[in-house]
Design goal:
19 residues
Length: 19
């Protein structure tokens, strides 16, 4: 699904701490 949040959390719309 949203694997981008796990690979680069800083490059996603979510917060970097929001894994």
């Amino acid at each position: 699904s949203n694997d981008v949040t796990i690979e680069k959390p800083t490059s996603t719309t979510k917060s970097p701490l929001d894994f």
